[in-house]
Design a protein that fits this description.
The protein is an all-alpha fold. It has two helices and no strands. The chain is elongated. The model has no long low-confidence stretch (mean pLDDT 96).
Length: 52
């Protein structure tokens, strides 16, 4: 996945997580899973940044 696509995925996942948090609460399993997925995407971006 190229950097630009990864950034778009991060933005979409961040919005999804925010909406889940507002609708279902911050401790809801769906919100937590979305947060973990966002963390994973952010880690991938960090790796790409460090490789340069």
């Amino acid at each position: 996945m190229n950097k630009e696509k990864l950034i778009l995925e991060i933005e979409k996942k961040r919005e999804e997580m925010t909406q889940l948090g507002l609708k279902k609460g911050l401790t809801n399993i769906e919100t937590v899973l979305s947060s973990q997925q966002l963390d994973h995407l952010l880690n991938l971006l960090q790796i790409k940044e460090n490789v340069r």
